[in-house]
Amino acid sequence: MRSTKPLRSALCATVAAFGLSTAALAETTWDMPTPYPATNFHTENIQQFANDVASATDGKLKITVHPGGALFKGPEIKRAVQAGQAQIGELLISSLANEDAMYALDTVPFLATSYPESAKLWKESRSAVEARLAKHGLKLLFAVPWPPQGIYSKSAVASMGDFKNMKIRSYSPTVARMIELMGGQPVTVQAADLTQALATGVVSANITSSSTGYDSKSWEQLSHYYDVQAWLPKNMVFVSQKVFDGLDAGTREALLKAAATAETRGWKISEEKTTWYVDQLKQNGMQVLPPSDALRADLKKVGDTMTAEWLTRAGADGKAVLDAYHAAQ
């Protein structure tokens, strides 16, 4: 009688190969462009989020993080996700301020200047941001704030007049408007290009967080940091709604759970690291100072002007959000 062992072996090999093929087909890989260095706390938090997703889905969904603008530069990320060139991405919410005023809310100067205030503002404005993203086929997953924003300069600044004609780095339309009202010249520079812009004299001052100041080693070109705590801008992580809907229910649930965890963790890390970043600026020789009374008063006027301008642009929706925020104070 002929042996059936070869037949059984071939059948087992076929079944095994089919199983591997099915597993390979079941695995989904997403590319995630981010604008900031791999060592930045936002990127580290996102990498942990990606790890959590892979673990929770047993590898069914893997997110490959591309930091530092390596895959797409900051301004290109939203369009890349919309076009299907990437499935998920991160960017600064206020970088979209020209699209809709609601994206600019967290960078209205001196509206929300602490972590508790920023959390309240996000609670009241989140649904409005989600609705605007939805119109473009995008789904918000989570958002994390930067430390409070300060002003870096090459020399001492006593009042607003010291900014006249100074080339100051801007990273969003709202920041550019603030610089104009301060009498300076806004120059748009992405975070990944800031070190070079400072070294080559493209800008001689900067409005940003202690975190970005640390990442870009601002002390190598600039000498003063004024801790004005103007606002806490947020980065958001979003996904193509079409791609999200294509996941099975269990994977969607795991993704949303990991996103909620990343948001909570990110807010905590941001607040905890703020003091550390400021200390690093000091240790590297920067003069870290509070603004003078005159400068504080001048900046407050700029904030009042920009709040009024924002309300004009945002209309009834914006007023409703702002009223809810003030009522929650």
Notes on the structure:
- It contains ten helices and eleven strands.
- With 329 residues, it is α/β, with parallel strands linked by helices.
- The strands form three sheets. A six-stranded mixed beta sheet has the order 7-6-8-5-9-11, sandwiched between helices.
- Helix 5 links the parallel strand 6 and strand 7 (185-188).
- The chain is globular, with a radius of gyration of 23 Å.
- 43% of the residues are buried.
In sequence order, what are the helices and strands, one letter per element? HEHEHEHEEEHEHEHEEHHEH
Estimate the global geometry from the Cα principal axes: globular
What distance separates the N and C termini? 88 Å
Number of strand elements: 11
Fraction of residues in helix: 40-55%
Low-confidence stretches: 1-8, 10-25
Q: Treating each run of at least 4 consecutive H or I residues as one helix, how many helices?
A: 10
The strand order across the widest sheet is 7-6-8-5-9-11
Largest sheet: 6 strands, mixed
Structural class from helices and strands? alpha/beta
Q: What does the radius of gyration come to?
A: 23 Å
Portion in beta strands: 15-25%
Q: Mean pLDDT, as a whole number?
A: 92
Short description:
With 329 residues, the chain is α/β, with parallel strands linked by helices. The chain has 10 helices and 11 strands. The longest helix has 36 residues, at 293-328.
Keyword list:
about 325 residues; alpha/beta; 6-stranded mixed beta sheet; 3-stranded antiparallel beta sheet; 11 strands; disordered N terminus
Topology:
Elements: H1 5-26, E1 28-33, H2 41-56, E2 61-66, H3 77-82, E3 88-92, H4 115-134, E4 138-145, E5 149-153, E6 167-170, H5 173-182, E7 185-188, H6 194-199, E8 205-209, H7 210-215, E9 224-226, E10 234-240, H8 241-245, H9 249-283, E11 287-289, H10 293-328
Parallel strand pairs: 1-2, 6-7, 6-8, 9-11
Antiparallel strand pairs: 3-10, 4-10, 5-8, 5-9
Helix pairs in contact: 2-9, 4-10, 5-10
